[in-house]
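User: I'm curious whether this sequence folds into something compact or stays loose and floppy. Could you predict its structure so I can see for myself?
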Amino acid sequence: MVILQKPITGLSEAGLERFLLRARRAAGLKGRVNLLVTSGAEVRSLNRRFRGKNKETDVLSFPANSERTPGASRLAGEIAISADVAKQSAAQLGHSAADEVKILALHGILHLAGFDHERDNGQMKRRERRLRRALRLPAGLIERATGAETGRGSSSGRRAQARRKS
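Assistant: Here's the prediction. I'll summarize afterward.
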């Protein structure tokens, strides 16, 4: 399920749902993904609540609990994206906000698939780069953060992975 609480020019809920399906398949992620595109304030609130960090960030990933009811469709997890940060980053990097939301969604999907760019010796970075190219997206989040394609410095404070608290 996709919810666009804050509109993104050139992006509909149905279009983002189709992208999520393609990205999940390309990443080998089984299960549904719920995606919320919302305000920076809301993402900041989620970051504070689930990670104890009272700061704005671009994307949060919430892996689902592995327990499920027999016969129920499996939820891989949920992703929250700040439309405000996505729009700012897109403007700085010279591509559309719609592409930026897709880049952030792909990044979140990789976290839901178990990747962790802070601890995996570049494995997530390489995977994200391959998938970004396959999905025809501009420079990926990790590449931008390390300056690999943009020459920019680290923005690791804007990235986040969160775990759902039971």
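Summary: The chain has one domain: 2-158. The longest strand covers residues 75-82.
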